[in-house]
């Protein structure tokens, strides 16, 4: 079970007029307002979600939305990986950063090659693209790709790279950056 509402542990508010005490008959109006407000705070009921409610996420055509657990995992993956390692999720209608599995897509391979060319020119190296490992994508007047791929320079073991590229609707490619993937995230 997952709680959708966490009750905040708030202290009861008390009147600050300095003249009244709780239970006193002649209280100021502020005291009565606060007492009513404090009663309402105590009556908050938590809604608990159960996975049985996931049936509500299926559309009549068989496609479905992500469940709450899947959304939680999705946002955690985005936060932990800067959007590079997001699991593919097919059959949904939501937009946003999506994992993709188009590893043989020529336009995506062109984006990875443009990224490694930029890395080479900025770092005076000669890496060559080998293979796409992970792809995430978001639609934005074209396609922004977050690519994880292998490249080698012929002298050392292949290395893992990460790049953010943009493939415009006119097939233009813009490379935001290309970097070696940190070993902490391998």
From TrEMBL:
Family matches, as SUPFAM superfamilies: Cystatin/monellin
Lineage: Eukaryota, Viridiplantae, Streptophyta, Embryophyta, Tracheophyta
Tree of life domain: Eukaryota
Cross-referenced InterPro entries: Cystatin_sf, MS5
Species assigned in the record: Ananas comosus
Name of the protein this chain belongs to: UPF0725 protein At4g29550-like
